[in-house]
Amino acid sequence: MPLGTPEGPTQSQWTLNAVSVLRVGEYPVPFEIKALPDNPDADGVYEIIQRFIDLIDASADFQMSHATRTYTHIQRITPTA
Questions:
Q1: CA-based nearest residue to 31, from 48, 44, 18
Q2: pLDDT in tens, 41-76
Q3: What is the b/e burial string over 32-64, where b = at least 16 CB atoms within 10 angstroms of the residue's CB?
Q4: DSSP character for 45?
Q5: Where would I find the H helices in the chain?
Q6: Is the full-model pTM beyond 0.85?
Q7: With helix as H, strand as E and coil as C, how does 6-69 read?
Q8: Is the pLDDT of residue 1 over 70?
Q9: What residues contact 74, with CB distance under 8 A and at least 6 apart?
């Protein structure tokens, strides 16, 4: 079966993880933040996510531990002639 041209990325999921500098006892307070735009693959979403990461990173009260984008690629398969 012929494979079509890959389409994607699609269905992006954006997740940011940060921790507080202040501690409760011995432990910081962890945060997991999910960005939930109506269209996560729209132009401009990445730039807004990056600004939010930079905002958290610039804070003296919180530290970014990591941020991720997960997504899929779709490749259609068509019947052979």
A1: 18
A2: 999 999 999 999 999 999 999 999 999 999 998 888
A3: eeebeeeebeeeebeeebeeebeebeeeeebeb
A4: H
A5: 45-58
A6: no
A7: CEEEEEEEEEEEEEEEEEECCEEEEEEEEECCCCCCCCCHHHHHHHHHHHHHHCCCEEEEEEEE
A8: no
A9: 6, 7, 8, 10
